[in-house]
Write a structure and sequence with these properties.
It contains four helices and three strands; from the N terminus they run αβααββα. It has a single domain, classed as Arc Repressor Mutant, subunit A (Orthogonal Bundle), CATH 1.10.10.10. With about 100 residues, the protein is of the alpha+beta class.
Length: about 100
């Protein structure tokens, strides 16, 4: 069974080459992560905070454009070097299917 932590890490791994320094993507926000893996934003927040404390994820404020709305500055999350190593280890050693 894949954990929420693993789901979030894998989702962010898929986003690793997206966005720019100033502009983020909806998929990098708590709402976008929650929609992608099927959990509420509040549960994403809890898990993301744990991942940040573990040193696997970092965030920055970026402009995020959502269709039909104006740009908002939101926290966008990405894997740091340790997070990338963690996901690559999971994939190589088939920790997740």
């Amino acid at each position: 069974m894949i954990t929420r932590k693993e789901q979030i890490l894998l989702h962010l791994y898929g986003q690793k080459n997206s966005g720019s320094v100033f502009q983020g993507r909806y998929e990098e926000t708590q709402d976008g992560i929650g929609e992608a893996i099927g959990i509420s934003r509040s549960h994403v927040s809890i898990e993301i905070n744990k991942l940040e404390r573990m040193g696997l994820v970092e965030h920055s404020k970026k402009h995020v454009y959502v269709e039909g709305r104006r740009s908002n500055r939101r926290n966008c999350y990405r894997l740091n070097g340790s997070g990338l190593n963690e996901v690559e280890y999971m994939l190589v050693h088939q920790v997740v299917a």
